[in-house]
Design goal:
The complex is a heterotetramer, with two copies of chain A (158 residues) and two copies of chain B (85 residues). Helices cover 34% and strands 35% of the residues of chain A. In chain A, a hairpin with a 2-residue loop joins strand 9 and strand 10. The two termini of chain A are 22 Å apart. Chain A is α+β, with helices and mostly antiparallel strands and 158 residues long. In chain A, helix 2 runs antiparallel to helix 3 and helix 3 packs across helix 4. Chain B is globular. Chain B has a single domain, classed as Roll (Ubiquitin-like (UB roll)). Classes of the chains: A alpha+beta (158), B alpha+beta (85).
Chain lengths: 158, 85, 158, 85
């Protein structure tokens, strides 16, 4: 597994191809890409600054991926999260999970995203016509992460 | 004993400090004690770190609870709920 | 929305970039790529031939995507399915779904894959050391598709 | 009236035919009637199209049921459960 925090953009094909190179046991890759939207809560967003807590970010992401590996039979997982200044339509985050079968890849990928949203120390500041504002955490993100808490490990090879 | 305290995002801006070294009483210390000490500064410290505010605390880069013990040299981070992804 | 059935391989970045070009309202893309594994049911698989029912394939895929669009607030969806001869590690299928928020993109993407697995007229024949064999449908695939049947439409903006 | 019948994958190989034109009685016809007529050929037809076998039927490129009516010129496809993706 690999987690990276970087200012640079990433290329989806290049990342996924490198990730699955030489591993013909992979039958499924589920991937998620988060993107900068140009509107949020009714305001035009002209750009985003992503702050993070460098000493903790990598550790938090590795912990989330390790937890996913415990819950599902996955072959590999990759997380890339960008920091710094971003524009609308820019890629923010990539989560990719490889497994033999699709159910595990989908669930682990969604799990990692849900936990990243509540556990990984990143903060977004939006530039709007009314000035810069820190994005508020969404209650729905806590709900999305919490629904995994009481879930028994799903069946392997579902 | 002393701990390093880091502040991030909205809290860093509200409190006007990114990092500081804080001396704590030698007797058993925890996150709650540190927060009490910070709130005792009054003003924005009291407001931003009120227990009703939705901030988070990490100790040595792991998410922590109010009861998490603190030791000499620990790195404590105080920050708003995260909004990455 | 677009569905394509083709012999040619596809490039993930190129497809996703074309798909989301000029649409800054997209905040989330969930993607799934299915790949040829080199083992199945204990046998080495040296290659795969994908047969389909040309007159029906496009229609079936469009129907599945239209159903997903009814259930979730998605901005766009793309399905590419390859046919013909494939080798281990080759890409077989891509399902990508764009939406404002991640929950909808994840659920619609998994829904489309689950339905594709039981409703779209494709058949795999594997080449193994014991000869060519038609892949048997998996009971688990029926289960995966059936679990959406009784599901109320999930909350928008979950 | 007549319908075009297509066979795919394992069924095409087992039955040795990919496509044929089949005349049906003029009275109200449906998928069940067509299947009866095909099974009446005996041999592999009877075996492969037995109602206990897990094949599927599409009429004019839509998944169909045993009760789906048939009309002159319809395209009927008979195939094993699908295995794409």
């Amino acid at each position: 597994m690999a987690v990276r925090v970087q200012e640079a953009d990433f290329d989806l094909s290049a990342e996924i191809n490198a990730f699955r190179a030489g591993r013909p046991e992979i039958g499924a890759v589920a991937a998620f890409v988060g993107l900068v939207r140009d509107v949020n809560l009714g305001s035009t967003v002209s750009g985003l600054t992503l702050e993070h807590y460098p000493a903790m970010t990598q550790k938090a992401l590795l912990g989330i991926v390790a937890e996913a590996e415990q819950r599902w039979e996955i072959i590999d997982a990759l997380v890339i999260h960008r920091v710094g200044r971003l524009q609308p339509m820019d890629q923010i985050v990539l989560v990719a999970v490889a497994s033999a079968h699709r159910g595990e890849a989908f669930h682990a990928c969604e799990f990692i995203m849900d936990y990243l949203k509540t556990q990984a120390p990143f903060w977004k500041q939006e530039q709007t016509p009314e000035g810069a504002r820190w994005v508020e955490a969404k209650e729905s993100d806590n709900g999305a992460a919490a629904r995994w808490e009481n879930l028994l490990t799903t069946n392997k090879h579902e | 004993m002393s701990v390093t305290v880091l502040y991030f995002a909205r809290l860093r801006e509200a409190l006007g400090v990114a990092q500081e070294l804080i001396a704590l009483p030698a007797h058993p210390a925890n996150v709650a004690g540190l927060l009490d000490q910070l709130r005792a500064r009054g003003g924005e410290w009291q407001t931003a770190l009120a227990s009703t505010q939705p901030y988070r605390v990490a100790v040595n880069q792991d998410m922590a609870e109010i009861t998490t013990p603190l030791h000499d040299g620990d790195e404590v981070a105080i920050f708003p709920p995260v909004t990455g992804g």
